Amino acid sequence: MKGPLFYSKILLFGEYGIIKDSKGLSIPYNFYNGALKSDGSTSEEAIKSNAGLSKYVAYLATIDTQLVQFDLEALTKDVEEGMYFDSSIPQGYGVGSSGALVAAIYDKYAKEKITVLENLTREKLLALKTIFAEMESFFHGKSSGLDPLNSYLSIPILINSPDHIEATGIPAQQTGGKGAVFLIDSGSIGETAPMVQIFMENMKQEGFRNMLKDQFIKHTDACVDDFLQGNIKSLFRNTKQLSKVVLNHFKPMIPAQFHELWKKGLDTNDYYLKLCGSGGGGYILGFTEDYKKAQQALKDYKLEVVYNF
């Protein structure tokens, strides 16, 4: 038995800001995926994943049944018989490894589930997001529910505010385009919870709150609008500003070995870097108007193109 595939996601814009009402744009990233499997595998990964699922089943049993009900009997039986989540999505990299698992479990075991084939009204999207936030908080302590939502629907999602989200279309990629959005592997794993903790501590300071509103959210919103409308020149201007704000105010979330590289991009305009997810490790997102130039400047690192302009 092998369940359907669920893909990783990339939050192009909106990390941290969406906690405080900024816009956000999340897109599926089909390079990585995961599926529930029951094939009797005794590999180390399968055994570890199965043990993790046992703990997760116990957690799902505590979720308010008014919100969502699962066929816990079938789920428990499948887990006891060795079911595991076979995934190529790297954990702790900001591309939604737990989101894909949550989507797979909901898809297979939720009763009266909202399906992808329905007319997805704002109410249905919000209902799904609320369910997924509850399901995913087992992994992060606090979840927005967006990663599983993206993985479950496999379509780009525009976040206007926490209670106003919609499925959206993004401009078609220019396959031969010079510009690109790319991922850099930082070579280390990022833990979401401690990063969010730092952010919440900073939020207690008035100066940080003002910076978030006047700079971070302003540029994030502009980036989302520019990207969706295909205003590339303006997008890069705003991404540069956003990159600068992150370097100045979100230093703990940027792995130390990238501080110089981050600044170099801003100085040369060869590329601009931003956080991918909560930071602290995992992937870093890069934006460039000339991918060849960026490749040259970042030749010591492994890059993966996500989108071409």
UniProtKB/TrEMBL annotation:
Pfam families: GHMP_kinases_N. The keyword ATP-binding applies. GO terms for molecular function: ATP binding; kinase activity. Residues 83-147 form the GHMP kinase N-terminal domain. Keywords: ATP-binding, Kinase, Nucleotide-binding, Transferase. The keyword Thylakoid does not apply. This is Mevalonate kinase. The lineage of its organism: Bacteria, Pseudomonadati, Bacteroidota, Flavobacteriia, Flavobacteriales.
